[in-house]
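**User:** You know discrete backbone vocabularies at least as well as I do. Would you mind producing a protein record, from residues through to fold? Write it directly below this note and I will take it from there.

**Assistant:**
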Amino acid sequence: MAVNRRFHILGPLLVVIVMIVIMAVFLNLRKKPVITPRNGGGALVEVIEAKIADRRVVIEGAGTVAPRYEVTVMPQVNGRVNWVSPKLVAGGEFREGEEFLRIEAADYELAVQQAEAQVAQAEFQLDVARANATIARGEWDLIVSTRKNSGSGSTGSQEPNPLVLHQPQLRQAEADLALAHAALSTAQLNLDRTHLYAPFDCRVRRQSIAPGQVVGPANAVAVLYATDLVEIEVGLPIADLEWIHVPGDTALVTLDTGQKKFTWKGISHRARGVVDEIGCLERLVVRLENPSHQMDDHAPELSIGSPVTVQIQGRMLKNIIPIPRSSIRENSMVWIMTAENTLEIRPVTIHRMTPTEALIADGLAQGEKVILTPLSGAAPGMRLRTISPKERS
């Protein structure tokens, strides 16, 4: 009985002691946590290193393609059209000097023959006048000689009246021949004008003529525009003109078809000297010579009226520091991370702003760290730390 009573009293106590020992063993076996010291305090920022570089100023604009020359063709002679080139349709192309229309020439050929006959007749009359003048001079010289030999009187100055020597008649014959030659030239010119030729490499915008139609100098038969020379008029802010050499700077003209972009090379040719009242934009003309020769067979044609973008390669800026445009703060300030990992707010001189960059002329040095991250409550001396690769990812 006594033994059983001790067991009932000590049993639970032994169980508690064993459990305490087991817990102590487990606690001693656990690894102590590694306490990682926090990185130095400060706002996390992303920075870039300022680097000196050269940048070419690129001025961007947009415009539409227009022909340099566009002419309305009118015949210079009257007549019935007896031939029209099958290419004389809207969109048809002609090379310089290629014939595209012919007017019936029979009347003008007859006029040439008549003028040639008049020239022959005038030449004959001139020969007769020259012969008569020669005979008259000989007769006069004979009279003078006879009188001298006979001593029968004086001939005065021994020069007769010009009419005696047929000089006016000779001049009249010469003038008639010149007039006949002029008439022949006019007749030949009118005959040549029965053929109409392309004045330059061109394309037909529209035509209004058909074989059998009677035309004259008052009738427009076609409108042609040049394809060997096109222009794009670009509206630019007046301030942009100081960065461009006019004429001379290369201009890249880009056509976006929606699936692919194609680029042609031209030049800044001239400023129109007219500022738009709306927008205060100066009109700059970019010129492209032979755009069809610059592309391969798979490129589309640079059609008249096509909307294009233009990038003018302007002046080269040397020894400037380009930084992201977003890093420019209010009042042309930038935030610098100093060697002591503190914030410095510094004014800079901006040479030019582009859509993506600010080109800094003064206020930054090579190797300085420019802060990209926006900071709330930024103040000089604020503690900073850079974003580690792990934190950035």
About this structure: The CA atoms of residues 251 and 336 lie 37 Å apart. The chain is about 25% helix and 35% strand.
